[in-house]
């Protein structure tokens, strides 16, 4: 992997993958600065070329998964994302610096399901 310098990420909006009535994933989005876009493109291209992953038709969406398989307990009730928006207007968003990339392997049926496959610290360019 070519050298990458650490870069800043910032939390953004709440969202779901799947329908709001039956979402598969609840997530908190994060910014996509140019260094992250470059890193994602480099890793994705390598993984596809090495046949480690299948080509993806969906656009890249940086996020942190908060919950899977949400169930509201109420039939036909939409997921209310506004109920999670407790951030105040004057409160600064959560920010952090990415110093490495970790690629996880999914081990279906195991606990924990995600296992670090590769950990690659960034080195300043």
Describe the model.
This protein has about 120 residues and is mainly β. The chain has one domain (about 5-75, about 90-120): Alpha-Beta Complex (Cyclic Phosphodiesterase, Chain: A). It has one helix and six strands, in the order ββαββββ.
Task: Tell me the Rg in angstroms.
Answer: 17 Å
Number of domains: 1
**Poorly predicted residue ranges:** none
Q: What's the number of extended β-strand segments?
A: 6
Global geometry = globular
CATH homologous superfamily label: Cyclic phosphodiesterase
Head-to-tail CA distance between termini: 12 Å
Number of helices: 1
Average pLDDT, all residues? 82
- Please state roughly what percent of the residues sit in beta strands, choosing from under 5%, 5-15%, 15-25%, 25-35%, 35-45% or over 45%: 35-45%
CATH class: Alpha Beta
> Can you tell me the CATH topology?
Cyclic Phosphodiesterase, Chain: A
Strand order of the largest sheet: 3-2-1-4
Outline:
This is 2'-5' RNA ligase family protein. The protein has 125 residues and is mainly β.
Could you give the topology of this structure?
Layout: E1 7-18, E2 23-30, H1 34-49, E3 63-68, E4 95-98, E5 100-106, E6 114-121
Antiparallel strand pairs: 1-2, 1-4, 2-3, 5-6
